[in-house]
Please model this.
Amino acid sequence: MHLYISDRTIDETMRCLGEEYFKLCLFEYGSAIRMMGSNMIEFFSNLDGLQTYISSSDKFKSQIPPSSRCEYQHNKLTVHFYTSRSNMLEYYAGIVHGISHHLFAKESSVSVTRSNTPGSLHNFFTIDASDDRTSSQNCTLCSPQEYISEIPSDSKIGTGTFCKTFPFHFVVDKNLDIIQLGEALAKHVTITGSKSDRRVTSHFEFVRPTIEPFTYSALLSHVNFMFTLRTKVCDRHGKAQVSYQY
Model:
């Protein structure tokens, strides 16, 4: 029997194990993994969809996979990570670093911020790809793209044209109130002037995925899921409930 003594801490060892695990996944399933996004932002935004698909198989039905959503600034990506297995966060951080290094060839540092709220599932990974050696203004975490204006008047397409082009869309604000409906969807959903009637949950039942409690933040954490919605009441013409997939 051989005894090996390492000067690594437990956290460092967990990170190494996580990175090695991702290397094995990349070796076995590289083609499928590379289809999840052409940059790190796309990859982490699509991660929930893959985990939902995997957890639906009989082999993993008893397990609840972690959930994630991401937001970014220039060369810095924050992954909101929801898991009940807080003791595995350093292991997950190793996987995150492996994705950055081995899949996208980006030199980055990954830091972990644990939730201070007892029982909370919400933790953070911060991926910093800043490089002080270069003055490049291009973001290394995302594909080259034009900045999108948040001023409505800068839009290249009017609201009326948009609603006709995408007849089954709807838009909600941070209060989860419906502020815009596509033309076809407006035939099945009638909104009056009262504020309570504008609530999206007054008109739609979210069949899948299950979101409890239903908040704007929780909705964002499932932003790349396939949604199945069902109207709660008959439409204005007395027709039956209608289901939609988004």
Remarks:
- The chain has two domains: 10-128, 152-245.
- The first helix runs from residue 10 to 34.
